[in-house]
Amino acid sequence: MGFEDFGLDLTNPDFVKYAESYGVAGHRLQRSDDLVELLERCFNTPGVHLIEVPVDYSDNDRILNHEIQEKSQFI
Length: 75
Known about the structure:
Elements: H1 15-21, E1 25-28, H2 35-43, E2 49-52, H3 58-72
Parallel strand pairs: 1-2
């Protein structure tokens, strides 16, 4: 986001393994087309389920850090 790095790098944990460490069924969505099938499987299987859904934030950077800044210069 254009801020100076001050030495702190955080990364996401493996949420599936994290869930499993607490006895929860962990799932990682690989393709958006598989979501309905995965949800149905979770609803039909007893217990607690965690579904990790990856999100592509590349559009956020483009819109929030570039397009809005460019458009706000004309106001």
